[in-house]
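Recap from last week: sequence in, structure out.
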Amino acid sequence: MISNNKYDYIICGGGASGLLLSNALISDSFFDDKKILIIEKEAKVDNDKTLGFWDSKESILDEVVYKEWEYAEFKDSEFHNSFRLNPFKYKMIKSSKFYSHLGEKISNADNFTYLKAHVENIDQENKIVKTDNGVFQSSIIFSSIYDDKGVKFNKYPLLKQHFIGWTIETKDQSFDDNKITFMDFSVDQKNEIRFMYILPFSKNKALVEYTLFSSSVIDDKEYESEIKNYLKQNHITDYTILDKEKGLIPMTCYPFFEKNTDSYFKIGTAGGWTKPSTGYTVKNSLDKIDLILNYLKKDKPLSKISFKNRFWYYDLLFLDVIIESKGNGSKVFSDLFRNNDPIKIFKFLDEKTSFREELSIFLSVNVMTFVRSLFKRILNFSI
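Predicted structure tokens:
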């Protein structure tokens, strides 16, 4: 059976990273003669999540952007800054459009096969993927299946970014439809990191999301109660809930990518592609996919790819500081936006700053907090 089910590449998982990798392979004629299988257990048709990112240039993602904004604001209980994002724009994608658009490209590609099946086991040594709909073999297996069972996070902090969002329609014009609320920390922190995130689609329609960075999740009723309270405090009382979304994103610097081999490669959140300090994944995936394709085209061993750079170490320290802050983590974000040009902060979070710019950012916050974390980190790695 395996001899009739051989592929050059198998992609396990048809979420964002799997679809973006598929699209990149389809878009590059170098891979036209490669036989590729993508496996996904569910039909990806629902609008199950909102994908947000900022960018200063166009990419494949622009083909499915639902709305973009030129302005943003940051708030806490004492500080409020509204600013133009130029040269960036903040962009939002509805996942249903993302799935259908890239899914159509895959279905039209002669060298691709899309299989609806559940991956039961991946035999890395023999390069075999066993599913409930057949057994398949490949030269290289890519997997976006996240599994942290057995992972020891001892030396790497783990936080959870979790949220519930409502898309609401108001009777009155309640929103500035060209400005997002990137973070509003004016809500009660409750000894954690809690903020509101708002994407206005029009003057009377918006996604309003209550987000936490913490070690454990809360009851759904608490998220929704906080959204209600926030809307009431902002004099929004007459509205209809059009849609709801819920999510959980692991925030960690654990080097999942160190377990990659030349024939087995983890992608997406499963491969450590999620930006640990923010939880953003989609746009980060594009640069990493470009690197993968470069290695494939030059026949370089995939096991040599490492995503450890200075920004990875920055994120590691940042998570240490957040965890050690014991509920005062929002102050780190406030210091960043209060003491710096916000565009520099977005550029920094985008990993596009120079070391000189980064040094000025570090000096704008409580330096000793980071220094203490640095020494603890050095001691931790030496044990």
